[in-house]
Amino acid sequence: MKTEGARAVADAGGIFWGVWWGLIGLASTQGLVFSAWKDADAALAGAGKALASPDIVDSTLELLEPTVRPTDHTPPARRGVYAFRTFEIAEAAWPEFSALSTGAWKTFEPGYDARIFGLFRYLAVPPPRRRLLLFTNYPSMAVWEKSRLRQLHRGGDDSAPAAKANLSARLDVTDWSRVVIGVPA
């Protein structure tokens, strides 16, 4: 599926980002496929080609728009685990949410050897709401777990305290969030 999907996306003018199998938050038979396109029309026309495999029996297309990251379409290539965290916030909270996120990344990424590959906006969710997808790589599940805010509140982990202060403040403007953890297929 990965090779066929990558070829189909490239033939349709897109960039294949990859396939991830779910570890947490998905059924054992589910995964995530990401591709980048020049615009929503191109994505609507070409994204289904990545999923044209007899192994895929059902799919959902989510149109996402980059916000502060990524700044280019380079696919992620790091090993480890990937967190796909969805946030819902009020549209009015976006400037603060964005500033807190980008401020946190300065120490969060080096503190946990993590890499933020993207913070995307779901195009299907109109104002006054905003739904976002944060796409982050960690070297391992252990590092992902260490980076959780609850570790800070328990006194367990003191890595990147400035990042954790920003992330804690970001929770105050977040209505809800959920995470899916996956590994590259």
List the helices and strands and how they pair.
Elements: H1 2-11, E1 15-24, E2 31-36, H2 40-50, E3 64-69, E4 81-90, H3 94-112, E5 115-122, E6 129-138, H4 141-146, H5 149-154, H6 161-172, E7 176-184
Antiparallel strand pairs: 1-2, 1-7, 3-5, 4-6, 4-7, 5-6
Helix pairs in contact: 1-2, 3-6
Question: Can you tell me the CATH topology of the largest domain?
Answer: Alpha-Beta Plaits
**Secondary-structure arrangement, i.e. CATH architecture of the largest domain:** 2-Layer Sandwich
Order of helices and strands: HEEHEEHEEHHHE
Fraction in helix: 25-40%
Task: Please state roughly what percent of the residues sit in beta strands, choosing from under 5%, 5-15%, 15-25%, 25-35%, 35-45% or over 45%.
Answer: 25-35%
Low-confidence regions: none
The side-by-side strand order for the widest beta sheet comes to 2-1-7-4-6-5-3
Structure annotation, total helices: 6
The largest β sheet comes out as: 7 strands, antiparallel
CATH class of the largest domain: Alpha Beta
Globular, elongated, flat, extended or rod-shaped: what is the shape?
globular
Tell me the number of structural domains: 2
Structural class of the secondary elements? alpha+beta
How far apart lie the N and C ends? 10 Å
Total count of strands: 7
Q: Could you report the average pLDDT, rounded to the nearest whole number?
A: 92
Radius of gyration: 17 Å
